[in-house]
Amino acid sequence: MKKKKVKTRTHNYKKHIGKAPGTLVYTGKKTEKQLKIESFDYTKDTITENVLTNIADVKAHKETDSVTWINIDGLNAITEIENIGKQYDLHPLVLEDIVNTAQRPKIDEYDDYLFVVLKMLYYDNEENIVIEQVSFILGKNYVLSFQESEGDVFDNVRERLRHGNGRIRGLKSDYLLYALIDAVVDNYFSIIETLGNKIEDLETDLFEGNAKEDISIEVQQLKREILKVRRAIFPLREIINRVEKGEHSLILQRTINYYRDIYDHLIQVSENIDIYREMIWSLMDMYMTTISNRMNEVMKVLTIISTIFIPLTFLAGLYGMNFEYIPELQYRYGYFVLLGVMFLMFLGLLYYFKRKKWL
Amino acid sequence: MKKKKVKTRTHNYKKHIGKAPGTLVYTGKKTEKQLKIESFDYTKDTITENVLTNIADVKAHKETDSVTWINIDGLNAITEIENIGKQYDLHPLVLEDIVNTAQRPKIDEYDDYLFVVLKMLYYDNEENIVIEQVSFILGKNYVLSFQESEGDVFDNVRERLRHGNGRIRGLKSDYLLYALIDAVVDNYFSIIETLGNKIEDLETDLFEGNAKEDISIEVQQLKREILKVRRAIFPLREIINRVEKGEHSLILQRTINYYRDIYDHLIQVSENIDIYREMIWSLMDMYMTTISNRMNEVMKVLTIISTIFIPLTFLAGLYGMNFEYIPELQYRYGYFVLLGVMFLMFLGLLYYFKRKKWL
Amino acid sequence: MKKKKVKTRTHNYKKHIGKAPGTLVYTGKKTEKQLKIESFDYTKDTITENVLTNIADVKAHKETDSVTWINIDGLNAITEIENIGKQYDLHPLVLEDIVNTAQRPKIDEYDDYLFVVLKMLYYDNEENIVIEQVSFILGKNYVLSFQESEGDVFDNVRERLRHGNGRIRGLKSDYLLYALIDAVVDNYFSIIETLGNKIEDLETDLFEGNAKEDISIEVQQLKREILKVRRAIFPLREIINRVEKGEHSLILQRTINYYRDIYDHLIQVSENIDIYREMIWSLMDMYMTTISNRMNEVMKVLTIISTIFIPLTFLAGLYGMNFEYIPELQYRYGYFVLLGVMFLMFLGLLYYFKRKKWL
Amino acid sequence: MKKKKVKTRTHNYKKHIGKAPGTLVYTGKKTEKQLKIESFDYTKDTITENVLTNIADVKAHKETDSVTWINIDGLNAITEIENIGKQYDLHPLVLEDIVNTAQRPKIDEYDDYLFVVLKMLYYDNEENIVIEQVSFILGKNYVLSFQESEGDVFDNVRERLRHGNGRIRGLKSDYLLYALIDAVVDNYFSIIETLGNKIEDLETDLFEGNAKEDISIEVQQLKREILKVRRAIFPLREIINRVEKGEHSLILQRTINYYRDIYDHLIQVSENIDIYREMIWSLMDMYMTTISNRMNEVMKVLTIISTIFIPLTFLAGLYGMNFEYIPELQYRYGYFVLLGVMFLMFLGLLYYFKRKKWL
Amino acid sequence: MKKKKVKTRTHNYKKHIGKAPGTLVYTGKKTEKQLKIESFDYTKDTITENVLTNIADVKAHKETDSVTWINIDGLNAITEIENIGKQYDLHPLVLEDIVNTAQRPKIDEYDDYLFVVLKMLYYDNEENIVIEQVSFILGKNYVLSFQESEGDVFDNVRERLRHGNGRIRGLKSDYLLYALIDAVVDNYFSIIETLGNKIEDLETDLFEGNAKEDISIEVQQLKREILKVRRAIFPLREIINRVEKGEHSLILQRTINYYRDIYDHLIQVSENIDIYREMIWSLMDMYMTTISNRMNEVMKVLTIISTIFIPLTFLAGLYGMNFEYIPELQYRYGYFVLLGVMFLMFLGLLYYFKRKKWL
């Protein structure tokens, strides 16, 4: 069996040790891909979509009256990100957190913007869960989003922006942030669905006795995936809860109901994860029982065969002895009498096992 | 054994992913059954009962002075539900939650109505627990209830309305809501009773040694049922607790005592569920012990038989050897002496096993 | 083995389902015994004790200036209890709770009385724990107590009332309530003592190897008893805690110290129960270890005997073959040489087992 | 094996049941020893030490301006303790708690004194943990201490008083109380050190394979000791925490820092206890693994021997048959060919076991 | 196997028992190394670095306007530390805590300084985790740090001070304290990384079947290391949380954001530790399963061989008997018929095992 090693990213931490606070160190996988900057600028009636080539252009948007969404893909371009940071007046620790992909989901409020870090989850081609960090800066009339690489779960939001579906164009940047977070959280459901299916498959295998010997390895890997997902999702719950309680002035009262909806979804996801954990523990239990039952069966076969034939073999050995005088040996029907006796013993033991329910 | 697969509804989530918030998607089982709208309009002295055919008729009731209960069966009729939503001025997220049957029990307060989601539990014909979502809208003088399909636990409430039993006709819509929730919660008791019986049956089987080999599967299924029920019931507890604390102005002080009663019932149900969980864990433990004990017994039989006959067989083999000179073989009573020795060995071992309490 | 089935009373719930709130349904065991009403009316200097025959007489006491204790045995007399309820102006839900013996311990404050439900525990003749519900109504100058049947733990309180021992006659109804609750709680100690003894007996059996095969059944039953007791006692702790914090105006400041004493006792009882739970879990663990150790021992005996005699038997079989030319068979002392070889093998294996510490 | 029975003192409770509240019942071991009253009366510059013979003398001290410490050994002298209670105006429940040695550690504030109960732990000569109750009454300028019997951990405090070491003579009664409690808590460290050593010894035994068969009994006893210590120490933590928060006016601000120090110590002790608990659980786990590993080894020996010799024995038996015509038997070298075949089979099986890593 | 004994330092406590509070007792390992005092005195533009030889020189720094960091290595020089204590007016309990290396991480606020104790973790040359206590005193314009011995994780901070990198020279003593704590916490990541690697190595061994028999010992040691690290790190979390909430006036608002960063790091470390704990529990579970599976395999081999050959051996024994009249023995082809029968039995059993999936 090929072992899929689930990495826990601990090795990323080291790059950071001993640097002065606020030093930008990208801790994800170095990719050669270039930075990609995408911008949407919209009011209720108009929308402009651009792929920016120059960092300086970003500045321009900030001053408009419309709502601007700037999405940055690729966190290894440290200098460009520092530039953006300067243009938007971001605290050095915020920039450090944006590029440090080992960050825990969190929300930090600064004077005129809100900083949100969360985790985007998806399965890659080899069915491994990938955790990608997404950071948001919510300003009065803009949202910045930072992703590790291209490809995300926001296409639906882009479509709604372009076609003006739903309320999105009519509302402010706080609703845009909601729409983006909602897209991330919605995607969690597909992750837990896949997890659920994996667990049910394992369970079916176990019920039907098809379980391979290495089921404990699969169980171990599932446990880890669940731990990983749990760790990515659970802190978000608390964050959204705080948003929903109206702690952050940048998020308007009107939008808070929507955040409550996200919160409900996160609770649902969390509950499912906890149920999966419990189901996996049960699975392991069942597996242990199965092993014990199987061993019991093996032992029964051994015991039945041994208990029947060992005494019979002894009897046969007895009359195979070469003593000069063994009276039974001379009897004409001695052999047949012995066969009869052996047969009766055989029947007797069968009955005994039957009564003990071993057969 | 036919495997009853307990589905956990995760597959429903997907339909939703990527839709704009507030989009109505019915996530239950599509049924072709038509929407059924039932209305009760009553004061202390009068009552009118109707089965509505036209959505527009619903509007009429809202303006009356009497208390109106409108019960809607069938959530797949999205457009009609949207119409009701417009007539009663319901928030889009409320409508989305009503038809999203994967909703968690919750209570949301809006400006002039209260939105309550809970779960109605019952056993279907194949002894599977069915979880049906029921949503309530409590307005000043009306209650709307939405169910997935026909058939519910409210017949008793209908009877009391029709015949004016108890206090129900003399009080306001908040008491009606209480009566409806109370009916749902009362029914939980029959669910946990059935669960309790199942556990006791399993236990009796185990005590009396009648346990089939697949007891761990039944245990697993019971665990899941309990998880399912737990998840449907536990959030409700917190909701009713908040109602009881008087957080919601639509529920009058006079009625709050009654909600306290529901709360007590929910605590009782919850406690029972937790006790069942613990009992099931114990059952599994006992089952493991039973397996080990049984294996012990099997091993003892094998060991006793082997320990007695293997040495005897060796002795018999010894005198079955064909050496030219084995003095014992020539002794006239050699055979009988050996038989005697063997018998003594046999007795000795029996005594040994007796002392070791293996017999 | 006679199985003692521990009932968990779930079957009582059903009687209630679908009744209008406030309907009185006695859920205990129907007994034909008559209602018995006992009354004490006392001041510091005088005391009148009566067994009432007429419900109407109860009314009279309420208006006196002295403290009155009315004790009602037998909850199946629904109509009489309804009468008392009317005379003392009790809320319908209170009456419902008094006769519903599946009630959880609780305290509810009403305008001019306090309603307390708790559980009286005792062992019946067959050593089963019996849980009897006792409800108290504390008014300004009276205490009503309701019990399922005759026989209680209040005899000591009655004696103190009659002879004016201690402070009881000089204080108000809130002290009387304290004295009654204290009597109930004091009795919990004898329950947990019996539980403790049972656990120690089991443990001794296990230590001394006298454990019967069905120890897991006894453990299971003990676990249940503990669960049962726990559930009857734990909610009371919180109730007394609230009383002690002075939340209820009917209980005077002077008496609160005494309630603190009850609270301390309940904490002690609870701690003991939790210790017993942990001890029982440990017992089960130890039992599993014992089983495994015993199996190990059985396997060792089997292995030692088999390992010694199977090779010897093979050797004997070898020289029992009928080949025409087996040189060893012709040697004059072949047999004795072989016996010597066998003996050496035997010694060698003994030494091997000794070194492995199997002997 | 001599069983050390760890008593849990439940049997003491019974003496108390059914007594009027405030009745003094000594629940410790009845000893014939006499009451011993010791008093220290000191100011910054002077100190008087007395062993009192008359209870009435105690009164005198209370009125002095200096700080007085009166230490009473022996709680079975109920009447004398009642006298002290009267002289110092103690609440009857306080006196009841002082002599009821099954009391839980607690702190109760009364109008002009503070009542503290805690547990002094030490090992007796047979290495059993002894729990002795110590009660303190802290008044404005006096401390009363009550112990079950002579011998305590306060000698160091006495020395400091006598020689005026440290701050003790210069400060008030609240510092004296601190010094006494500190002495009790300091001694907990030696208890947990002994516990730690016991656990490490067990662990070493297990690692080195010297574990006796009854290790589970020792583990069980350790678990109990830990439970016992835990129960004696943990409630104290909360008490000191409340003192440290300044809830009690009799303890001056200046002294509170010192109580914070005790609190830190208690947290340390508690943490160690919890670590020990976890280590013991792990030990049990390891022991189970050890048992299973040992059984595995036993089974392997059995299987190897059986798998090698059972087929060989069959072959030997085959040529021991007495058929008239078995061609192989007539071959001149049949015997040697068979021996060769047997040897090859033997080698083959050895290789097989080698590859399976059983050898 | 060489046993690495993980010491838990309990033996240090004893030195302390019975001393007056405020007595300085160094509880670490006595080393002969001398006290080393190092000082940095800096403003935005200037920096003076000294290795002090005289304790009295320390005083001088306190009065300067610049920020001073004095680092003291070696806690066994009790008298010198007492001198420093006097010069800086430190509370006796603070000094006691500085030299008592069994201290728990904590923060205590005094009138004009803040006292922080935490644990520096590193691996020594033998791969054992070493826990060294570091204490900080934060005054208005100075930081004192106390370490058990030379060698620390602050070199990076020293470099930044010397070269004026980052913000450190421009800010006050509270930022210096932050930088020092940050250095300690950063180093935790390398500890947990090593732990993570150890766990993954164990896991790989287990997956690939290379696990030695003593894996449970390694698991036990890992558990202990984790407990140790946990205990050193977890209390710090709460401390930093309190700092971050602005409870301490000596830490300026501007610096608090930086402490929030440390808090995030600590949460990350804690989460990893908890994940490692869970993974280790799972490992143990998997190991148990592995053992059981292996035993199952052993048993199967035994059972297959026994079940096949025991009946065949019986048959051979049957025809090895010496009865005078056994008709089969005279048949010309009796031997070959029997061989055929045996071969069929052999095939039959093979088929049986195949169907049972034992082969």
TrEMBL record, chains A, B, C, D, E:
InterPro entries: CorA_cytoplasmic_dom (IPR045861), CorA_TM1_TM2 (IPR045863), Mg/Co-transport_prot_CorA (IPR004488), MgTranspt_CorA/ZnTranspt_ZntB (IPR002523). CDD domains: TmCorA-like_1 (cd12828). Keywords: Cell membrane, Ion transport, Magnesium, Membrane, Transmembrane, Transmembrane helix, Transport. It is a multi-pass membrane protein. Belongs to the CorA metal ion transporter (MIT) (TC 1.A.35) family. Mediates influx of magnesium ions. The chain crosses the membrane at residues 301-321, 333-353. It holds the Pfam family CorA. The gene is corA. It comes from Winogradskyella marina. Coiled coil: none annotated. The lineage of its organism: Bacteria, Pseudomonadati, Bacteroidota, Flavobacteriia, Flavobacteriales. This is Magnesium transport protein CorA. It comes from the Bacteria.
